[in-house]
Amino acid sequence: MIIEPKTRGFICLTAHPTGCEQNVINQIEYVKSKGEINGAKKVLVIGASTGFGLASRITSAFGSGASTIGVFLEKGPSAGRPASPGWYNSAAFEKQATEAGLYAKSINGDAFSNEIKQQTIDMIKEDLGQVDLVIYSLASPVRTNPNTGKRHKSVLKPIGDVFSNKTVDFHTGNVTEVTIQPANEDDIANTVEVMGGEDWEMWIDAMKEAGVLADGCQTFAYSYIGPKLTEPVYRKGTIGAAKDDLEATSFKIAEKLKDINGNAVVSVNKALVTQASSAIPVIPLYISLLYKTMKEKGIHEGCIEQIQRLYADRIYGEDMQLDEKGRIRIDDWEMREDVQAEVDKLWAIATTENLSEIGDLKGYSDDFFNLFGFKVEGVDYDADVNEVVEIPSIS
Ligand code: NAI
Ligand code: NA
């Protein structure tokens, strides 16, 4: 079939297999071009199909020659209905990894459940014995807690006060004022349930108990801080409360891994266009101004550049350069004073009329479509493609 983007608000309902494959190939080429990283050889990535998790899987495999198991929740294709992008990405990744002689298997299911954890542990036992790196990169709006059976929904709201600021509809470039009512106690608790650290700890507990964590095993999860501008709706909002919890959990996990010489650390990453971040009000406007500024300064990075640098310079570099709260700061270039001063200046004057000039609206929009395999250079979108693509280890 001919597959075209079909957007509804900040989601795209279709994905292009060839475009997704090309994205994966481009990321692999990037990692290879940066040279070998002396990293872990047996790696589990939870949330491995898109965004930072996919970049982590690619960096482990093609930077360090690692065997990888990827866990994710994606929708497979059926005749006439394309799969979700993470499905096509994972199919392409497995194909590339296998061609390169690398072990790669995937598990498609709810990572929050006990069943998927057990299935993953069984696969590790059978195929790899143990893993020496676990990347936790889930982003989800909902979680069913397997201990209580209760389903929680996260929200993106400020805590305490009503928040009003500018935002942009990145499809139209319309800059408007958005007002968000503050969260109640339930909203906060639910968001922490979904995006906090409990599930990460449950994974590590289950894996340690099963003996599938190798001596010296490290685990990393990803967080975000961002500027003052987005603080009320991000870091000091409900999602920030969840990130506080995630970060606090890293110390609990690190303590539990001491006896196997392991470690657990959070890496604070840069703001990027992903399916998760497009849904957060105000953030798209911030990102479009940030992209413009960082590209002008020659320091713009996407997921793969971020994760390649995270591995090469921090995790497997001389020094993780932890901040005063024990976190890796690979958001260092985003948070540079000159970058933030410029974004502040642009933010103050941003309007519908000037945004395409002072902001990188096109960069935002292109990145958004790229997530779904559209607008990828070198792909012939007029060509007939087979939407039914299998993930080799799943079919
Ligand atoms: P993403 O939406 O691209 O990736 C989410 C991944 O989680 C996908 O592989 C998806 O299949 C998987 N997933 C979701 N629900 C699942 C479930 N129930 N079971 C199994 N897999 C499931 O998100 P992104 O942006 O890569 O986020 C990953 C982490 O990075 C999150 O913790 C996020 O907060 C963090 N982060 C994101 C930033 C951004 O600007 N996008 C900045 C800094 C940190
Ligand atoms: Na991810």
Question: What is the count of β-strands?
Answer: 13
Please tell me what the overall shape is. globular
Distance between the termini: 21 Å
Strand arrangement, major sheet: 5-4-3-6-11-12-13
> Whole-number average pLDDT?
97
- Identify the CATH class of one domain: Alpha Beta
Q: At the third CATH level, what is the topology name of one domain?
A: Rossmann fold
Low-confidence stretches: none
Determine the structural class based on helices, strands and strand pairing. Answer: alpha/beta
- Write out the CATH superfamily name of one domain: NAD(P)-binding Rossmann-like Domain
Percent of residues in β-strands: 15-25%
Can you give me a brief rundown of this structure?
The protein has 395 residues and is an alpha/beta fold. Helices cover 40% and strands 16% of the residues. 1,4-dihydronicotinamide adenine dinucleotide (NAI) binds next to helix 2, strand 4 and strand 11.
Structure characterization notes:
The protein has a domain at 8-148 and 186-280 and 300-331: NAD(P)-binding Rossmann-like Domain (Rossmann fold, 3-Layer(aba) Sandwich). 40% of the residues lie in helices and 16% in strands. It has helices at 17-33, 51-64, 85-99, 114-128, 185-195, 198-209, 238-257, 283-296, 303-315, 337-349, 355-358, 361-371; strands at residues 7-8, 11-12, 42-46, 67-72, 104-108, 131-136, 142-144, 151-153, 163-169, 174-180, 213-223, 263-268, 328-329. The strands form 4 sheets. A 7-stranded parallel sheet has the order 5-4-3-6-11-12-13, with helices on both faces. The radius of gyration is 20 Å and the shape is globular. Sodium ion binds next to helix 2. The record marks 74 as: Plays an important role in discriminating NADH against NADPH. It comes from Flammeovirga aprica JL-4. NAD(+) binds at residues 47-52, 73-74, 110-111, 138-139, 243, 272-274. It is an enzyme of class 1 (oxidoreductase).
